[in-house]
Amino acid sequence: MTLAKNLRKYRAVYLMFLPVGLYVLIFNYVPYYGLVIAFQKFSPFLGINKSPWVGMANFEFLFQSGDFFRLLKNTLLISLYRLVFGFPAPLIFALLLNEVKNMLFKRLAQTITYLPHFLSWIIFGALMISFLSPEGVINKLLAGWGYHPVEFLIGPEYFRTILVVTGTLKEFGWGAIIYLAALSGVDPTLYEAARVDGASRWRQLWHVTLPALVPVTILLFIMQLAYILDAGFEQVYVFMNPTQYAVGDIIDTYVYRIGLTGSNFSVAAAMGLFKGVVGLFLIVSTNKLVKRMGHQPLW
């Protein structure tokens, strides 16, 4: 079938796709042109075409800066903590929820847990700050048990833990939807055959449920690994204060300060391009590794 015949036959489908295609093109691909300012001394008054070219000078400035490795370390540590502690949370919750037989309780629990996903970090962060403040619920509970109040929001010792815990609380319910959808596609006869063979609930989980979730788990892992240098600007910006810069200042907050606040757009673009290249390398290499291990890759 030629392209013209295909367009005529499925014109309704292409018309429905057109707004989405235009959105992706305008907001995801056209902005790539702006990456050239990473190699310029960009001036808004001169524009991209007339700003002078400086080659790799912006990248040299970044890599020779005393802040670069501190920013990279903080970003990687926060992202790795989220990967280790936050990534399994939706899977575990989905497995637990899948065992619930009361449909009313199951739907209620699912609705309550994925509701925070729709709240902005301004709102959700304010709620968490109210819980963690010296006069908050947690410190009142500690005082009731005879402990002294803890300054969770001041100082660096609790900052990364707060980021991981609050980030997991906000997103684990939403992330569980994908696993629950995958579980709904498992053939019930597999469980029946396992029960006939005398498999316990644990054995059914180990030999039927988890293997069915391997493809979607690998897919989500690859996608999350690609964002390992994206430690979440909004969340960090909400919780961070100057006393926590040593452990909480990440690449995104640095880009915000130097790019938008300091008007050094070229260095900010260079840092963004560096993040993109690293993310591309990670997603391609991980995808190849998964393929070599015999699992279903992303492409």
TrEMBL record:
Coiled-coil stretches noted in the UniProt entry, renumbered to this chain: none
Membrane protein topology class: Multi-pass membrane protein
Residues annotated as signal peptide: none
Family matches, as Pfam families: BPD_transp_1
Compartment list: Cell membrane
Keyword annotations of the record: Cell membrane, Membrane, Transmembrane, Transmembrane helix, Transport
InterPro entries: MetI-like, MetI-like_sf, UgpAE/MalFG_permease
Record domain ABC transmembrane type-1: where: 72-286
Transmembrane stretches, start-end: 12-30, 80-100, 112-132, 172-193, 205-229, 265-284
Transport is among the record's keywords: yes
Family: Belongs to the binding-protein-dependent transport system permease family.
Name of this protein: Aldouronate transport system permease protein
Lineage: Bacteria, Bacillati, Bacillota, Bacilli, Bacillales
